[in-house]
Amino acid sequence: MPCKGPFFVLFCSSNPYLMKIYQTLLAGALSLFVTIAALAQPDTAKITQQALAFADSLVKADHYENWSTYASLAPAPVIKYYGGKDGFIQHIQVGRLRTISAIDEDPPSFQILQLRSRNEQWQCVIRQSRYFHQNDKQYHSITYLIAQSMDDGQNWRLFDVSYNSVANIIYMFPEIFDDLAIKEPTILTAEQEAAQQQAAAPAATAKKTVSPKK
Hints:
Elements: H1 8-11, H2 16-40, H3 44-63, H4 67-72, H5 76-81, H6 85-95, E1 109-118, E2 121-134, E3 137-149, E4 157-160, H7 169-172, E5 186-189, H8 190-208
């Protein structure tokens, strides 16, 4: 029975040429759909890289005392919390004295712990680890940077929580996502760090031990 109506082109198996055209169009449509879907997904690797680049810029501005740049990298609500740019810079200048090193140190290391997207913005928590020396003693500083992007991760504004307290973040930065877990910054001596690692070792060993199946 010959094919009838509008389905002739699509389903008439008696004409291989028309079937080939249909298959080509279908394959093209599927390929286009997959491409559109891929483009709609955020490139989290690129977003992460950008956030870390801005974190590095913030730390370098602190290290080289480029305060105008440092302030320009902070979110507007944080600047406002300190009464403006001058008040913010003055607070940072005083707070940083407790971690200024007496010798040249290696650059800090960064690690993104959490990355979230909501309401057309991105926020993340970045762990910053670095060592410094004061009074002939080595210390390990671990702090956390809160970062925000309003343009799909291209540009970031961020601040170091160690210059205040975790409890005050909601007042400094009311826009913070409520599902971001932020730890208190720590400063450990070499002895304290060694003791902490020793205490953690048995727990890590026990976690790796798996009972044999019977």
